[in-house]
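Good morning C.,

I know you're traveling, so I'll keep this short. The sequence:
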Amino acid sequence: MKKTKILSLVGSTYPLDRLTKQVDELGKDKKYAIFAQIGESSYTPKNIASKKRLLLFPRLKQYDEAIDNHQLEICKALKSKYHIPLIVKNKDLLDYISNKFNKPRTIANTTLADEITKLIK
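The tokens, ready to paste straight into the viewer:
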């Protein structure tokens, strides 16, 4: 039986522990593959994979990913207001990840990246 995949995003401005707790509770049912971006939560999920870091990587017109650069404009505003890292170039993304996430977080003997990859396949 294939698991239903769920991605839960709460952002990084304020915690949303109510949602995180509910999604974590749902994670007890092993028919779901759940990954949550939990922001500045004081609650630590026990049944789902999660992370707190957030970064912005907008679709760009120059790569035919969007009809204009409205996502870039929104991301620049979010970076300015909330200090969320903004990455535009592929190489910068790789550099950012290797510098900021250099210590792999493990979940059940696998890295977080392995867990995310399994969830999105």
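Safe travels,
E.
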